[in-house]
Specification:
Aldolase_TIM, Aldlse_KDPG_KHG, Bifunctional 4-hydroxy-2-oxoglutarate aldolase/2-dehydro-3-deoxy-phosphogluconate aldolase, alpha/beta, carbohydrate metabolism, nine-stranded parallel sheet, 11 helices, lyase
Length: 210
Amino acid sequence: MNLTEVLLESRLVAIVRGISREAAITAGTGMTDGGIRLMEVTLNTPGAHEIIGDWRTRHEGQAYVGAGTVLNVQMAKDAVAAGAQFLVSPNVDLSVIEYAVEHGVEIWPGAMTPTEIVAAHEAGARVVKLFPMASLGLPYLREIKAPLNHIPLLATGGANLDNITDYFAAGAAAVGLGSALLPREALAAGNHEQIAACTHAFVEVARVKK
């Protein structure tokens, strides 16, 4: 399955960072029950490779599992060996993009400037993560899409249920979501039903394409 097509169709990536392996089980169950199709665990999360393996086993056929915060080729190799089906980074590292392209693994590298975005796209990234969106803001997204409307952007940072439609309206092809999908009290209580309800609300919004 072409995961870039899945991304552009579903318009959401769930990002999990800094949680325990046990909490990740709750998070994964809730998010997949809520309809999320792409789940990413950042590699600076303790036990990230084990979480990737757990999610692949538990959610095969429901969701695709990826690794985030991939900073170099060795991290990319280790993530793929652990079962990662796509890679996400906060920066543009051409060697990581080259590795992913050569091995048929989808990669969505993070970029901020027009130069970085174009360089990542020309290196083979079919979608580029615009990061950090919480700091850059929606006006920046709108401005940068004007000359670069041929490059799909995954806007990551700052999105919630109240403003996610503004992200799409400003030109985001997809949105990366973190804590907005995972209420702390739900994780602490192991309440995957609450996480599923929260996730489902985002999935429904993303389905409405204008």
